[in-house]
Specification:
7 helices, 2 domains, single chain, Rossmann fold, alpha/beta, five-stranded parallel sheet
């Protein structure tokens, strides 16, 4: 049995939300150390570059740690490839995952069983707080692509995220343009 429980909270964080930050803070109370692993999901159209996601996540995690200094240490690291390979490479004993709803749970349980069978890594689930149950990075990107006033996102993402979303929108980022162009005709 390991003397220290190192957990990995993996995600693409494209962009990071208050829901992600909630899972990070709650994970800091459950484990001895937490690594927020910023990766790439090849199945998703990325809005932020790997460097932007790492920088933004690092900044917001630093702010979180400053606000809650007594909890477990947390670091932010980039990774590529399989999450389980990264977790094993740093000596992690568990994967931390946030679950918002039944659909998330079904997918996450399948992943957890696979990760345990393939890599011997257990998964701990943290159920999203009620105010984060319907927030997702995909939804944030859709609102950014189709909306005019991004201030409505202030309950879902920190101000630094809104600022970078405004920049991407003004630059007509291709990922946002694809989302905007996929809306039903006649709108």
């Amino acid at each position: 049995m390991p003397s220290k429980h190192l957990a990995v909270f993996p995600g693409s964080f494209d962009p990071i939300t208050f829901g992600h930050l909630d899972v990070i803070q709650r994970g800091r109370r459950l484990f001895d150390e937490l690594v927020v692993a910023v990766g790439r999901n090849p199945g998703k159209d990325q809005l932020l570059s790997a460097e932007e996601r790492l920088s933004l996540t690092s900044q917001l995690v630093r702010e979180l740690v400053t606000q809650h200094p007594g909890d477990a240490p947390v670091t932010v690291r980039a990774f590529s490839g399989l999450t389980v390979d990264f977790a094993r490479s740093i000596g992690a004993t568990i994967l931390l995952r946030g679950v918002r709803n039944l659909s998330d749970l079904q997918y996450e349980v399948q992943q957890a069983v696979t990760n345990r069978e393939v890599a011997g890594l257990e998964t701990a689930f943290v159920v999203a707080g009620q105010s984060f149950a319907y927030t997702s990075s995909s939804l944030i990107k859709q609102i950014t692509a189709m909306g005019n006033d991004l201030s409505g996102l202030s309950s879902m993402v920190p101000p630094a995220v809104i600022e970078i979303l405004r920049q991407k929108k003004s630059q007509r980022h291709p990922a946002l343009e694809r989302l905007r162009d996929d809306r039903p005709r006649g709108e």
